[in-house]
Amino acid sequence: MYETLAQTILLEEDARVTREVERIRSRHPRSSDAEVVRRLTTRAAWRCAAVGAIASAGEPVFGRLASTADLSFQALSLIRLAQAIALARRRPTTLVERGAAAAAAFLLAGGEAVLRRGAGRAARNALRARPELAPILAALAGGAAAYASARLVRRALEEYLARNPRRRW
Length: 169
Known about the structure:
It contains six helices and no strands. By secondary structure, it is mostly helical. The chain has one domain (2-163).
């Protein structure tokens, strides 16, 4: 996992990111760059939400293992989303920009994990009379937090790219 994270930061183009952008462009050839970014973000947000929900529901059983796997997945997904948005906007990125995006993704994924854990504890405490519902509520909260983090990455990156436009193509 760490090797993949390092490659994602150090290499300007990740083959998986490039394939995903090209796949969306080929399926929707008349889409603008903004529409491609919207589709990329929606797909990434739902993937993050699914993993966040599963990790949240499984945390009472798997403990820190669920959080660790979720943190790594979420950070990698958010880094790849940032690269995909830049690629869809036809904007090359520097090593410093990729590193900053990775740092922001780790902070966001870490904050989301803390929020998710807190929501899970709150759900278990609130539903002491019906403890079988706690994993469902925790999964919903974890999924929502992960979904929101992907949307936040898009918004922050769109603002950054609007302030710093550099086109290569």
